[in-house]
């Protein structure tokens, strides 16, 4: 009896133009499986960055009519391809990977914010890049359906860090070295805006715009000014507000979680425990 392998894909739309996808193919449990097809990869004005989460034992990749890879992608390997070219692939074994779809216009826009405009990335196959590996892993909870996908500032910050690294290592953008802080008025404006919108899905771009700077500059300068990234500062303020509501009101955990900007009670409990070392209910009991 023949059966095709099972496939799973989880999509995360980071912005209107950037997408992150986790793609998994598992064995069917039945044999023999039919021969896998050769897949035409749709062309686009974009780059694809793929990170292998486990060994991918057998895979073939063609650029035009030329076979450019045949063999293994090991756990942690990355590949960068220019989707303007004609690509075909054949998945000859099971896999688990994360794919970043990065439009050329986005590379140009974000790199210009970073100091010098670039229009593309060098293409590579089956190389190791620990920075990409760790940044992709930071976003895995969102791809797994956990509540982190509500924390748009966190996703924005990691995405910006990933793009900056790719642009510098594979696009020739100079490394920006700065220890500058936000001006006093910018610190006040950022703090007031974030505190006034704790319950909302903030983005790095809108906070930066209120301070009159680019996302890249804001993310760097905020960390120098406050000692932590914007998403970490926001989480602490949300937990501080939650503690006050837990002490002073009789509202339920879910209502407090939503009022403080968490996706749901599970997200609230997880972040609360990370920062306070105990679950919200245990913290409440200690206050009595």
Brief digest:
Helices cover 42% and strands 23% of the residues.
How would you characterize this protein structure?
With 288 residues, this protein is an alpha+beta fold. Helix content is 42%, strand content 23%. The chain has helices at residues 104-114, 130-138, 140-143, 152-170, 184-196, 204-211, 215-226, 230-248, 253-259, 265-276, 280-287; strands at residues 6-13, 19-26, 39-41, 46-52, 56-63, 66-73, 77-82, 87-91, 95-103, 124-128. The protein has a 6-stranded antiparallel beta sheet. A 4-stranded antiparallel beta sheet has the order 3-8-5-6, with no helix packed on it. Strand 1 and strand 2 (19-26) form a beta hairpin. The chain is flat and about 65 Å long. It starts with 5 loop residues before the first strand and ends with a helix.
């Amino acid at each position: 009896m023949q059966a095709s392998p099972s496939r799973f894909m989880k999509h995360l739309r980071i912005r209107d133009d950037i997408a992150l996808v986790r793609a998994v193919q598992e064995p069917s449990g039945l044999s023999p499986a039919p021969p896998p097809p050769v897949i035409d990869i749709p062309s686009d004005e974009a780059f694809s960055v793929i990170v292998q989460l486990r060994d991918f034992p057998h895979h073939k990749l063609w650029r035009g009519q030329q076979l450019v890879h045949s063999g293994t992608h090991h756990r942690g390997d990355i590949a960068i391809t220019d989707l303007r070219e004609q690509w075909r692939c054949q998945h000859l074994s099971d896999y688990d990977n994360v794919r970043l779809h990065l439009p050329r216009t986005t590379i140009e826009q974000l790199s210009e914010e970073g100091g010098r405009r670039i229009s593309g990335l060098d293409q590579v196959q089956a190389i190791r890049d620990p920075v990409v590996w760790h940044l992709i892993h930071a976003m895995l909870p969102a791809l797994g359906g956990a509540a982190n996908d509500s924390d748009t500032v966190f996703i924005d910050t990691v995405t910006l860090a990933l793009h900056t690294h790719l642009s510098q290592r594979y696009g020739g953008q100079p490394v920006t070295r700065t220890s500058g802080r936000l001006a006093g008025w910018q610190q006040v404006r950022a703090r007031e805006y974030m505190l006034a919108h704790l319950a909302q899905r903030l983005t790095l771009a809108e906070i930066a715009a209120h301070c009159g700077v680019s996302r890249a500059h804001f993310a760097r300068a905020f960390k120098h000014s406050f000692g932590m990234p914007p998403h970490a500062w926001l989480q602490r303020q949300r937990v501080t507000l939650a503690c006050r509501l837990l002490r002073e009101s009789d509202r339920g955990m879910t209502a407090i979680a939503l009022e403080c900007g968490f996706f749901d009670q599970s997200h609230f409990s997880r972040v609360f425990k990370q920062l306070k070392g105990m679950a919200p209910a245990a913290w409440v009991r200690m206050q009595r």
